[in-house]
Write a structure and sequence with these properties.
The protein is mainly beta and 453 residues long. It contains 2 helices and 37 strands. The strands form 10 sheets. It has a 5-stranded mixed β-sheet with strand order 9-8-7-6-10, with no helix packed on it. A 4-stranded antiparallel β-sheet has the order 1-37-36-35, with no helix packed on it. The longest helix is centred in the C-terminal third of the chain and has 10 residues, at 324-333.
C-alpha cells in the first residue's frame, strides 16, 4: 500500500448505514442510477407470498443529496401476479434503463420518468422464466448491449437454448445446453437448469460473442446475428455419485473464457476436486487440467476474483469442514467454522499451495436463513476485502492482508441482523465498494441495510 492510499484510507469518513423498510417481504435487490444524478438508486423486488392474489411490487429508493437513502420507497411499480423475473435493459438508446417484467408468456416494459414508472410496451415472447412465482428475482444476465449500438439485447431462456432479441424484433435462438427434468411424487415437478452466460470479444467483429456454460457443455455463438456455433464437452470424467459444477471466467487475460470445474462426492467422507482449464486458443481446451485443487472432508467451492489488485483473476476457496469438531460446535455453541484459501494466478499458473489462508468462525443460521457474506474492495485500497456475519447481530468487515488473506481483527463492525444475502455494489464514485444486505425468507425480510463507504 503506497503512502497516498494509506493516508486516504486513514482519512476516510465513517461509513453511513441506511435502513430501508418495505410493506411486504423483499426477495431480491439491485442498484442502478435511475434519476441520472451519478449515484445508484436501490431497487427492491417484493412480494407478499401469503396473499391472494399475490402482491408484487418494485420498490425504488432514490438516492438523495449526498447519497443518502430514504427509509421508505420513493416510488413503487405494481407488478402483475404472473411476473416471475425482472431485468433492466436499455430499449430506446436514451437513459435511464427500462424495467422489463417477464413471465413464461411475455414481458411488460416500463420507463422511469423521473418520479415514477409508465408502461412503455408489452411483448409476447414465451420463455422458461417462471409465471406466478412467489419468490420473484432479478434475472442474472437478462440483457446486454452485444453489438455496441446503445440498445440492449435480451437473453431469454427457452427449451431450445437462449433467444436473442430486442424490444422490437427477434434476432436468433442460440442452441445451448438447457437441462430440464420431470419428477413425480404426489405432484409433478418440472425444473430447468439454465447455463451461465459470459461474453467475449471476437477478432474483426464489433459484436461480442456469447459463451453458455452448463455442467456438461460449453456452447459458443458468434458472427453475424450469432449464427456461428461451437460446442465443447467439458472434460469431467465423472464417476458414479459425483456432482459437478462449472464456471467460466477469463483468468489469463487473453479475452477468451477459461473453465473452472468442481466435482464433489460423498457426505461424511466428502471429497471435492477443482480443475482449471485455460483456453489454449479460442474454443480449444487441453484434455488435462492446468491446475488441480483437491479437498478432503469439507464442502469446497471456488470463487473467481482478483484478490491482490493486480488485474489478474485468482481462486478463493471457502472450505467448510464436515467433521466432528464442526458438528459439535454447531449443536453445542451454535457456531460454524470455515477456512478461506486464496490461490493467486501469476499470469501463467497457479501455485499448488495456497498463497493466503484465514480461519473464520460465525454464528450458525436457523431455518432458511444463511450467513451473510461478500467479497469486495470496501476500503478502496485495491485489495479484496471480506464482509460476513461474525455473530447473529454483528456484520464485520475484514480488510485484505498480504500476509494472511484478510486481517485477523475486523476493520469495521455494524450492529444489525447478519443473516441474509450481502452484495458488494459500487453505488457512487468513491473508490470503495458498498454493501446491500437483504434477508429473503426470514423474520427480517422487510428490512434492507445499505452501507456506504
Amino acid at each position: 500500500m503506497n503512502w497516498i492510499v494509506l493516508l486516504a484510507f486513514l482519512a476516510a469518513p465513517d461509513p453511513q448505514v441506511y435502513t430501508l423498510e418495505t410493506e411486504t417481504n423483499v426477495w431480491d435487490a439491485t442498484a442502478v442510477d435511475l434519476n441520472q444524478d451519478g449515484i445508484k438508486d436501490v431497487l427492491l423486488l417484493t412480494n407478499d407470498e401469503t396473499a391472494f392474489p399475490l402482491k408484487k411490487e418494485l420498490c425504488v429508493f432514490l438516492a438523495g443529496k449526498g447519497g443518502a437513502y430514504p427509509e421508505t420507497p420513493s416510488c413503487r411499480l405494481v407488478l402483475s401476479e404472473e411476473t416471475g423475473a425482472l431485468f433492466l435493459a436499455e430499449v430506446d438508446s436514451a437513459p435511464p434503463v427500462e424495467v422489463v417484467a417477464t413471465s413464461g408468456t411475455g414481458a411488460a416494459v416500463y420507463h422511469f420518468d423521473g418520479t415514477g414508472f409508465a408502461p412503455l410496451a408489452t411483448v409476447e415472447c414465451p420463455s422458461l422464466y417462471p409465471s406466478g412465482s412467489r419468490e420473484p428475482a432479478f434475472a442474472k444476465f437478462g440483457a446486454k448491449d452485444l453489438d455496441g449500438d446503445g440498445v440492449d439485447e435480451w437473453l431469454l431462456p427457452t427449451a431450445r437454448g437462449v433467444q436473442i432479441r430486442t424490444l422490437d424484433r427477434e434476432i436468433a435462438t442460440v442452441p445451448c445446453d438447457v437441462v430440464s427434468e420431470l419428477r413425480s411424487g404426489e405432484s409433478l415437478y418440472i425444473t430447468h437448469r439454465l447455463p451461465d452466460i459470459q461474453t467475449f470479444p471476437v477478432a474483426g467483429q464489433q459484436a461480442l460473442g456469447l459463451a453458455f456454460l452448463s455442467d456438461e457443455y460449453a456452447d459458443f455463438a458468434y458472427g453475424e446475428d450469432w449464427s456461428l456455433h461451437k460446442r465443447v464437452r467439458l472434460p469431467l470424467h465423472l464417476e458414479e455419485k459425483w456432482e459437478a459444477s462449472a464456471s467460466m471466467k477469463d483468468i489469463n487475460g487473453d479475452n477468451f473464457p477459461d473453465l473452472v470445474i468442481t466435482q464433489m462426492r460423498g457426505t461424511v467422507r466428502m471429497y471435492a476436486e477443482t480443475h482449471v482449464y485455460l483456453a489454449k486458443e479460442p474454443f480449444v481446451y487441453a484434455e488435462t487440467p492446468d491446475a488441480v485443487f483437491p479437498c478432503t472432508g469439507a464442502v469446497s467451492s471456488p470463487v473467481v476474483m482478483d484478490v491482490d489488485g493486480d488485474k489478474l483473476l485468482d481462486l478463493v476457496f471457502i472450505r467448510i469442514p464436515f467433521g466432528v469438531g464442526n458438528i459439535v460446535n454447531f449443536f453445542v455453541r451454535g457456531k460454524i467454522s470455515a477456512r478461506a484459501e486464496a490461490h493467486l494466478f501469476d499470469g501463467k499458473q497457479f501455485r499448488e499451495k495456497a498463497d493466503y489462508s484465514t480461519n473464520m468462525t460465525m454464528d450458525a443460521p436457523e431455518g432458511r436463513a444463511r450467513v451473510a457474506y461478500a467479497f469486495g474492495d470496501f476500503n478502496g485500497d485495491g485489495r479484496m476485502d471480506a464482509v460476513y456475519g461474525s455473530a447473529g447481530d454483528t456484520l464485520a468487515v475484514y480488510t485484505g492482508d498480504p500476509q494472511r488473506f484478510i486481517t485477523s481483527k475486523p476493520w469495521k463492525k455494524f450492529t444489525m441482523p447478519s443473516f441474509g444475502n450481502a452484495r458488494a455494489e459500487k453505488l457512487n464514485d468513491n473508490p470503495a465498494e458498498d454493501i446491500i444486505l437483504f434477508r429473503p425468507g426470514g423474520d427480517q425480510a422487510k428490512r434492507v441495510d445499505v452501507i456506504v463507504f
